[in-house]
């Protein structure tokens, strides 16, 4: 692997494919040469705000051209990107911003008030607002001002009120001069990204990924897909703030000089409209997206046959979803596996008819795996036996931000990463996921940590105790279920009330979709709630 920073990938693509369209954002196109210029100016903007090597810069943005530009601009200065979900609550954002020590935040207008709400308890010195509509084609942007219901709804979805004194990213960019070429570039060993994940405990913590980690995974993806540079059209329907979307839809796509069709959120109708304008060839997605897109295409008669490949991750790919997608497109969908801590892809199915639905696939290039005893990670199990999956390779992270104890638990002394997932390796080397040691819930590709939902629900009047578990939900993966024990005489605790209570503090995907009332919760001899028993009892309960 070359000893260079991730930013060398962008510079090479700008140099080799300057006139190729880099980004199509709802119809507005930007070439790779223009992206290179905007990144240079963006880096100058950030340097004027005091950002230097090693400083953390928070990005609180949906997918848009500005997100891609800001990401590369931060890295160009040798600073560290910290990605955040722009729909997080004020409390969630405050915790992550305070933990990372970010000094500058580039924030979607709608999220600015939530970032400012906890600013005093963070190290933030500057908050810069991003107007999502500024990345639209001129005609579309002007249409937002029309006094018609459609324009008002679109404007409300894209724009947000920003307090006086908060500068705007696009205005700063227009006034900036390109960054001088002699400004020092980062090194491969430098930290590039802090990506928050709950890991095995549910407590959000930042996985520290270096330029070398991210570059390795982009190169591994290129070797795996055998993509010809300058030919692919990648649909960025996965959010850049998610590890899966960041690598497949941003760094890998840049590596291969692809055209990125960028959407601010997943909407099947919007994807089909983009497909008519600019047919895609490669789609990274989670199974519910594939299922909904295939259904929309079947219903509308839309042509998806340009998609040769789709890569499915973040949750198990149901066989029915895979068959439906391949029937509609005539292409191949292959399942992959990874973690935030592996940048994130570590295993994948071949992009050929040899792929095996329901399997995690084979190790990525330069990636090693072991299957070990669940209680003793130093002891390998016999071939064919189930055990915990360990991973080693150039994409494995260097640890958690300011969490040495949790790093030591997750990352063994010899460089092997504990995944917490129980697998079995078949005779031909394909890896099959059997179970999770950790009890997180995966819904729609997002991870929900039961303890966080439980901690909040225990503060709800009328709730004496609670256990949060996942139950199968078809293409969505799992559904969040709250099993509660009520105080004597409690009233008004129904699903609507529980959802309303949770929506004030939790991300929308973590809000329970089902409520079960129990007389008591099953516990171990030491008093720990047995979530697995609760989950097993769910079919016998009524909602």
From TrEMBL:
Residue ranges of every copy of the AMP-binding enzyme C-terminal domain listed in the record: 453-528
Residues annotated as domain AMP-dependent synthetase/ligase: 10-401
Give the superkingdom in one word: Bacteria
Entry keyword Ligase: yes
For this entry, the protein name equals Long-chain-fatty-acid--CoA ligase
Q: Write out the transmembrane intervals.
A: none
Alphabetical list of InterPro entries matching this protein:
AMP-bd_C (IPR025110), AMP-bd_C_sf (IPR045851), AMP-binding_CS (IPR020845), AMP-dep_synth/lig_dom (IPR000873), ANL_N_sf (IPR042099), ATP-dep_AMP-bd_enzyme (IPR050237)
Q: Which UniProt keywords apply?
A: Ligase
**GO MF:** ligase activity
**Organism for this UniProt entry:** Cellulomonas oligotrophica
Task: Give one Pfam hit by family name.
Answer: AMP-binding
Whether Ligase counts among this entry's keywords is yes
């Amino acid at each position: 692997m070359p000893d260079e920073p991730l930013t060398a990938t962008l510079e090479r693509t700008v140099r080799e494919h300057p006139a190729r369209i880099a980004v199509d954002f709802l119809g507005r196109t930007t070439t790779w040469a223009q992206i290179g210029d905007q990144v240079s100016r963006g880096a100058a903007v950030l340097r004027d705000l005091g950002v230097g090597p090693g400083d953390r810069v928070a990005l609180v943005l949906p997918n848009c051209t500005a997100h891609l530009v800001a990401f590369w601009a931060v890295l160009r200065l040798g600073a560290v990107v910290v990605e955040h979900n722009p729909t997080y609550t004020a409390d969630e954002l405050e915790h992550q911003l305070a933990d990372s020590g970010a000094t500058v935040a580039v924030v979607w207008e709608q999220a600015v008030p939530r970032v400012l709400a906890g600013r005093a308890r963070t190290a933030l010195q500057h908050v810069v607002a991003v107007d999502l509509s500024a990345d639209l084609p001129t005609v579309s942007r002007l249409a937002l001002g029309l006094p018609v219901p459609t324009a008002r709804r679109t404007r409300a979805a894209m724009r947000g009120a920003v307090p006086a004194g908060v500068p705007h990213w696009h205005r700063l960019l227009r006034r900036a001069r390109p960054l001088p070429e002699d400004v020092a570039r980062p090194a491969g060993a430098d930290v590039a990204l802090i990506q928050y994940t709950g890991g095995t405990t549910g407590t959000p913590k930042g996985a520290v990924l270096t330029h070398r980690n991210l570059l390795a995974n982009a190169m591994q993806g290129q070797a795996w897909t055998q993509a010809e540079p300058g030919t692919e059209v990648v649909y960025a329907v996965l959010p850049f703030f998610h590890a899966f979307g960041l690598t497949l839809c941003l760094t890998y796509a840049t590596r291969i000089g692809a055209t990125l069709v960028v959407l601010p959120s997943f909407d099947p109708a919007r994807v089909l409209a983009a497909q008519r304008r600019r047919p895609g060839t490669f789609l990274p997605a989670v199974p519910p997206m594939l299922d909904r897109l295939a259904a929309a295409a079947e219903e509308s008669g839309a042509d998806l046959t340009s998609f040769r490949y789709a890569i499915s991750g973040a949750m198990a790919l149901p066989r029915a979803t895979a068959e439906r997608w391949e029937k509609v497109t005539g292409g191949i969908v292959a399942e992959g596996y990874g973690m935030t801590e592996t940048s994130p892809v570590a295993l994948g199915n071949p992009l050929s008819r040899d792929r095996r639905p329901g399997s995690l696939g084979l190790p990525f290039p330069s990636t090693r795996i072991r299957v070990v005893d669940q209680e003793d990670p130093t002891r390998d199990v016999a071939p064919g036996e189930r055990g915990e999956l360990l991973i080693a390779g150039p994409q494995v992270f260097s640890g958690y931000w300011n969490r040495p104890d949790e790093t030591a638990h997750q990352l063994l002394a010899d460089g092997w990463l504990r995944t917490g997932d129980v697998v079995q390796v078949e005779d031909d080397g394909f890896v099959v996921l059997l179970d999770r040691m950790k009890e997180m819930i995966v819904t729609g590709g997002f991870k929900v940590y039961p303890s966080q939902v439980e901690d909040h629900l225990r503060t709800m009047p009328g709730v004496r105790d609670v256990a949060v578990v996942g139950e199968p939900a078809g293409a969505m993966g799992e559904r969040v279920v709250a099993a509660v024990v009520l105080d004597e005489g409690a009233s008004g605790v129904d699903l609507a009330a529980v959802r309303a209570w949770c929506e004030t503090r939790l991300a929308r995907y973590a809000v329970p979709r089902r409520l079960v009332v129990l007389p008591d919760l099953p516990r171990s001899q030491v008093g720990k709630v047995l979530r697995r028993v609760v989950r097993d009892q769910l079919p016998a309960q009524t909602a």
